[in-house]
Amino acid sequence: MRPTTSPPVFRRFVGAVVAGVALAATSGCTVPVDAVAGVSVTGDGHLLGVMMICGHHIDGATLYVDSDDTDKTVTVGSWTSARPHKAGLVVWPLESPAAGWTTTRALTPLTAGTTYAFYGGTKDNSWSTSSVSFTRADRDRLAPGEVLYDDLSDDGDESAAVVPLTQFRATACRDM
To answer: For 152, what's the count of Cα atoms within 13 Å in the CB-facing half-sphere?
Structure first.
């Protein structure tokens, strides 16, 4: 029996398959980031979720124990929005019901010495926010009107920043 493809055609086919597998193996399966998450506090010290949405939409948020070991990642609070929030600033209380938000997992009390991470996303995984890591002590140092978030420097390094809400609104999307 004779082969139905010529060796050059077969080699090109195999080359294309190998290139496709290599591309798939090296491309990340992450949700694009188009918003910045932060936290703030009310006048009486209650935790607020803060998001500056840069262009698309966000309709959910999660607060979890931040751990390099995914088996130790525990969700301590989650919320879904009644409608997608479009570009702009969104602020809501995380410890009590908020207009337009449904608590899908009530916030458990934050414990000393534990690092938490807060981020937002969409139900269809089309967009997400950056995340912000913080401890209860970080929360306790915040004053009303201040936002703690992970700022991206010009050289691509992330570092925690505490800024007035007005500055967060004005600058958070500059690197998106």
So the answer is: 13
Nearest partner of 169 among 68, 56, 67, 54, judged by Cα: 54
Q: DSSP state, 33?
A: B
pLDDT tens for each residue of 80-138 = 998 999 999 999 999 988 888 999 999 999 999 999 999 999 999 999 999 999 999 99
Which pTM was predicted? 0.79
Give the HSE-up count for residue 50: Cα atoms under 13 Å, Cβ half-sphere.
Answer: 25
The shares of helix, strand and coil residues in the chain, as percent rounded to the nearest 5, are: 25, 40, 35
Nearest to 77 by CA among 118, 42, 29: 118
DSSP per residue over 57-105, as a string? -EEEEEEEE--SSGGG--EEEEEEEEEEE-SEEEEEESSS-BTTEEEEE
- How far apart are alpha carbons 99 and 84 in whole angstroms? 13
- Number of residues in the chain: 176
